[in-house]
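Q: I'm writing up a methods section and want to include an example of the input and output format. Could you take the sequence below and give the corresponding predicted structure tokens, formatted cleanly so I can copy it straight into the document?
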Amino acid sequence: MSSDGRPAIRGRRLGTALRKHRESLRFDLKDAAEAVGCSTSKISRLESGLSPARVGDVRILLDLYQIQDAELRGRLESLARQSNKRGWWADYQATVKAGFTDFVTLEADASFIRTWQTMFIPGILQTPEYTRALFESNPAAMSEEMVKEGLKIRQERRRTVEEAGTRIAAVIWEHALTSPMPSRSDHRKQIEHIVKVARRRSTTVQILPQGQWDAARIASPFVAFSFDEEWAPEIVALDALGGMLLIEDEEELARYGHAFDTLRSAALSPEESLAFLRQTADGISQEEAASE
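A: Here is the clean output for your methods example:
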């Protein structure tokens, strides 16, 4: 994110799209600069996401690149507008780690989110109690104030995705669901929440059984974002030690798309997964009753 709170990833996405359209017609930077009436360095910075985009300039470039599809034009013009707006997450820059503001921006903009998780429940499916338990498991890393801000961020992320009706496909390894939490009640409520969300038309949840080691080894946890009707992954996010790593190389994206399809094929069906989740919640309820 830029220093003034503007989401830099939107500018990069816009710039990448404009560069691809320019190169497809074999126009050089000088051609684009002459059309807009600016320097080639400005076009270069625009395509790199380093300079704020003016909607008027973007429209000139879309005309130059012969882009007539109204939906595509609207999407790119919207990116130009949104790239100049301060994101709600700018208020939490002291709390979030490097690169996470880009992740939140992608999550808010995506039309389709694929997520594969092995150790934890996907963030957008977590209950506040589950999130708090995760944060509080490492008190040396997060103060109480940071925990409170982290919970606000997670709540806002969920609200944004739910209001947008974003399509979600989650594959979760069984271990992430059955690992005990400090509170059995919170654990049960988390599983019940996933059942509730999985009933939505926009959300599919599949469980990869614990014994499916070959499938589980196919990839580390990742989140793939799509932004148009073709549903192909356009950006993949990996949670690394140094911060969030974003993958945009087309060949790499294709590999992750294939990996996710493989995971879905190896996982329980959505119907079988719902049955598994209900059974897991019932088992936790029985443990609660036995401990009273």
